[in-house]
Amino acid sequence: METIGLFEAKTHLSELVARAERGEEVVITRHNKPVAKLVPIDGVSAELVQQRRQALAELQEIGQAMVRRTGVITRDEIIDWIREGRR
Questions:
Q1: Which fold has domain 2-38?
Q2: What is the pLDDT of residues 28-39, one digit of tens each?
Q3: Using CB atoms within 10 A of its CB, is residue 19 exposed (0-12), middle (13-18) or buried (19+)?
């Protein structure tokens, strides 16, 4: 694992990201002290995947209920939902 100073990391960020994509890890230092690590993303956690699936299922249920209720979802209903979500 390579160590690189913050100034140099800023200068070569694109290169460092490309290295992370290839599986390399780089420690970034400030005043010779480690402050961050650039690592490849292995994937999304199982918990986050489950949360996203649950949210998507809930949205689909809402949409299906609206279609059954009215047959059509109107522009005004969508605007009302957006406003309700902002409260």
A1: YefM-like fold (3.40.1620)
A2: 999 999 999 998
A3: middle
